[in-house]
Amino acid sequence: MAGSISRHSRLVGWAKVLLPLAALCLLSTMFLLARAPGGTSDIPFAEIEEIAREQRIAAPRFSGVAANGADIEVSARTARPEGALFTIDAPRARMLLPGGGEVTVTSGSGTISADGRSARLTDLAHVDSTLGYQMETAGMEADLDTGRLSSLGPLEVRAPYGALTAGALTLDASDAGGESLVFSGGVRLLYRPEP
Amino acid sequence: QTGVALGGLSVDPSAEVEVTADSLTVDRAGGGATFAGNVVIGQGEMRLSAARVEVTYDEASGDITRLAASGGVTLATASEAAEAEEAVYDLTAGTVTMTGEVLLTQGGTALSSERMVVDIASGNAQLDGRVRTVLNPDAP
Question: Which Pfam families match (chain A) (predicted)?
Answer without folding.
Answer: LptC
